[in-house]
Design goal:
The protein is α+β, with helices and mostly antiparallel strands. The chain is built from six helices and seven strands, in the order αβαββαββαααββ. The relative contact order is 0.08.
């Protein structure tokens, strides 16, 4: 019955919970002034009490609120209040994770766009030495579509002794965290110095 309620309609207790970073417990929605416009919907749904807890990130910044309703008037018991706080904490962790993932994805897109415009051949590898990103220059030089380069190791392409040695160099870098250089024999009989 309260689905679709605007934040303005819930701003009283919900806004107070977010602002003060403390749960706001309303024992009777039908008597509380913060639920004036929602009283008919609450009455129709037989909702009487509303318990609201703030959702915050690890730095304490507000992310939202968790709202629990009960069909009985009154305050939550200790276990109910504990579950409300736990739900608030878990929601904060999940929302922060989603925000971090979205930020990381945006940075990844920016990096890929920058790498793709480079005049140098660039590939990124995962911990198993499989290509997870190749730029347009590498695609041109390889003469293969990106789909045939991605997910493959240097042993797969260009293959041969040079490909295996190149892969061993990548494995060493992944194991030690130390940059290195490698001379790769190109099929066109040119030597390519690679900074890893």
């Amino acid at each position: 019955a309260l689905r679709g309620a605007t934040l303005d309609e819930l701003v009283g207790p919900a806004g107070a919970a977010s602002w003060h970073a403390e749960p706001v417990l309303v024992p009777d929605m039908l008597a509380h002034p913060g639920y004036g416009s929602l009283r008919p919907a609450a009455r129709m749904a037989a909702l009487r009490s509303c318990w609201t807890a703030p959702v915050r990130d690890a730095a304490g910044r507000p992310l939202g609120v968790i709202v629990a309703f009960s069909t009985r008037p009154g305050l939550p018991d200790h276990a109910e209040l504990q579950r409300l706080r736990e739900a608030s904490l878990m929601a904060g962790i999940e929302l922060a994770r989603r925000q971090s993932s979205a930020t990381l994805l945006a940075h990844e897109r920016d990096l890929c766009a920058l790498v793709d415009r480079s005049p140098d051949s660039i590939a990124r590898y995962d911990v198993h030495c499989r290509r997870i990103c190749v730029n347009a220059q590498l695609v041109r030089e390889a003469g293969l579509p990106a789909s045939e380069l991605l997910g493959r190791t240097p042993s797969d392409f260009p293959g041969g002794a040079s490909g295996r040695a190149y892969e061993a160099c990548i494995e060493k870098i992944l194991a030690t965290g130390q940059a290195d250089e490698f001379e790769l024999d190109d099929p066109g009989d040119t030597m390519v110095m690679t900074r890893l």
